[in-house]
Amino acid sequence: MSSCCSTDSCSMDEKTGQENQALCPQCGQKGLKVKGVTLQSMLSLDQVSGDSFAGYRFCKTENCDIAYFGPEKRSFTKEQVKVPIFQKDPSDEVEVCYCFALSRGEVKKSVARGEGMKLYHEIKRRKDTEGCDCEVMNPQGNCCFGNVKQLILLQEQKLTIKG
Predict the structure, then answer these.
(1) How are strands ordered across the β-sheet holding 57-58?
(2) CATH 2.20.25.270 domain locations along the chain
(3) Residue 50 needs a FRET pair 20 to 30 A away by CA distance; which of 15, 31, 109, 130 works?
């Protein structure tokens, strides 16, 4: 695996130089730019044939059914994506780190044992030594390491409030 963990918040289409429509047509929230390779790996072949996927974005809003949206009001729902989407699926079985198959439930258990930061550093070590393939493995199309850290901190905060 290579290291793909970088962000790109540009809202310009690389080929046309025109502004991409950055807001989800269903929920109105700003979407995250995704590369074509992400959509090609996340959608079934019959959904991707003939599409260039230039200008597509990922909607991370939990209660929105849209996963990807792009030019000409074309969109794909979370049901059309091959894997459950962390931001849209509250279950403990959903993966938070797709490259290393780490589920929300596993993160919660680690935090409950007081090992949240140990898990964080283990994922970081693996990411640094083995690399990652988030553009292909993660539906949001970029590094999931931030999601892991955010979930650990949220779970630690919940334990502090309860305790």
Answers:
(1) 32-33, 57-58, 66-69, 75-77
(2) 8-82
(3) 31
